[in-house]
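General statements about sequence and structure are easier to judge against a single worked case. No coordinates are needed to read the tokens, only the vocabulary itself. The sequence in question and its structure tokens are set out directly beneath this paragraph.
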Amino acid sequence: MVDVDTFLTTLYVMVDDFCKLSLPSDLHPGPQAALSRSEVVTLALFGQWQSFGSERGFYRYAQRHLRAAFPQLPSREQYNRQVRRQHVALVAFVLHLVRLLAAQRCAYEALDSSRVPTRDAKRRGAGWLPGLADIGWSNRLSWYEGVHLLLAVNPTSVITGFGFGAASTKDQPLAETFFALRRQCQPSLASVGAPALSPYVVDKGFEGEANHTVWWTTYGAQVICPPRRTRCQFHKFATSDAGERL
């Protein structure tokens, strides 16, 4: 297990080299930000590496233990603004890591979704993500307000791409948009990553032979899904199981 100081130093050096060599200058009008671009990206990634219970928990840890490495650490609100401003740099570095690790040279990529609540679904008003978040259903959360996150992950748990839609978006249309953007990426939606070099393994939320045919012929995305159990198959299984028990 790598200790925190070693990991943080290695990550910062990698991020700083990438930002200097691969990204345009971060100069902008107005007062200088408390943290440099490299520092913001490093902290954002470090906050995901450690198992912090919340964003607030991560920032309490940073204020207590990372002051020596980041002496200009601002308030949490200011830090969040800087992370949002460095979204493009953060996505670019993540995709750089995917290429550096050759993470897509694998037997398959698992494609799955997760529900991300952003506020109490019973609250009135438009909320803080109007036009992006809405009300959707989750078997784990029931009705919730938020977004629907889609991730592609290789067998060693490296995230090769991600995107999200409104909570009410179903798995199939979200996946189709994901495949389309991987095929012909738009700079503003680069987080989806590059097309997979191997099949996608999915669960029943992405089932449907018609969808799989379209995804393959249109986007070159081969999808492997568990066969759908028909009523006859279920009856045969239940009868056979009952006979064995007798």
